[in-house]
């Protein structure tokens, strides 16, 4: 349903709504997919997952960074979380976005921030640092920064978005890096990316298989798609791929039963845990992928105290969400 997807992707890019949402705090079910905004809550969440044999990658939310001060603040928050993971002897690493480190206005600042994070990560048992991929516009920056850092650090990796025609070339370029394989979460045009679900799924499966056979480092298979997971598990078995060469990943709050089942079968499993106040953009992208997630929001909207709590601001969000829901319900018919 491209109109619904475009609607929520549009909202995810709206800086006014993002800023306002940050002030209000997680609403409409976002707290089910974001692990709070205090270190204590985050650490409890990681401990709970670790006790189930699941490791984590933490994303300190926040993409709309426009000043040097904000970029440094974002870097400091990432360092704080890294320290907490290390200090509590937890199994976890970090996922960062170059945009939160300042790349949108000063790529060298983002590079310096990331390098500082990597230097600290070396002191914390060589904690892995993953650079999440964002809109296609930022891919060049990511590869530039990665190329500058990968000689100096072994614990840095990134994400391959299978909807991009370029994905093949990126897999060939980085066999020695730990890579996460995803379908791709942004809206890209037909000049650079596959458009239909069938094409994207087909390319995704093909690329994971290619990577599993050629990689010199861990491949993270990040999807909630049980059919694809089943196919890949069979491929891994047929090709006798060592357990240490791959892991499965899912987002916090989605398909937890399936995640626990896959981990229980003896596979390495990692949950991507978003953390912090900047929940809106992340949440809107999840709605764009799967409008069924609107059910989460509807349940919250029906709670009588929710609108009273934050008045007008909640009203604006309720209007936005209701419009998306109506679009989804009308177009589904
Ligand atoms: C750990 C992780 C990290 C990511 N990092 C990035 C990144 O750096 N950059 C980026 O662009 N994207 C990233 N993504 C998002 C990714 O690109 C996809 O947009 C997102 O994962 C949705 O695609 P999917 O593979 O889960 O399957 P979809 O195509 O969304 O779903 C396929 C099928 O799976 C089943 N399914 C999916 N979700 C559910 C559910 N909640 N309940 C029941 N059934 C369900 C349904 O049958 C559905 O038809 C990441 C995703 C994960 C899991």
Give the strand order of the largest sheet, numbering strands 1, 2, ... along the chain.
1-2-3-4-5-6-7-8
Q: What is the residue-mean pLDDT, rounded to a whole number? A: 88
The proportion of residues forming helix, as a percent range, comes to 40-55%
Summed up, the domain count is: 2
Find the CATH topology of the largest domain.
Answer: TIM Barrel
Say what oligomer this is.
Answer: single chain
Structural class: alpha/beta
Which second-level CATH architecture of the largest domain applies?
A: Alpha-Beta Barrel
Written description of the protein model:
The protein has 333 residues and is an alpha/beta fold. The protein folds into two domains: 1-30 and 289-332, no CATH class; 35-275, TIM Barrel, CATH 3.20.20. The chain is built from 13 helices and eight strands. FAD binds at residues 161, 183-185, 197, 223-224. Substrate binds at residues 97, 285-286. Residues 43-293 form the Proline dehydrogenase domain. It is an enzyme of class 1 (oxidoreductase).
Helices and strands in order:
Blueprint lengths: L1 H11 L2 H10 L14 H13 L3 E6 L7 H20 L4 E5 L10 H17 L5 E3 L7 H11 L6 E6 L5 H7 L5 E4 L14 H18 L4 E4 L3 H13 L7 E6 L4 H9 L4 E7 L4 H10 L4 H8 L3 H28 L1
Parallel strand pairs: 1-2, 1-8, 2-3, 3-4, 4-5, 5-6, 6-7, 7-8
Helix pairs in contact: 1-11, 1-13, 2-13, 4-5, 8-9, 12-13
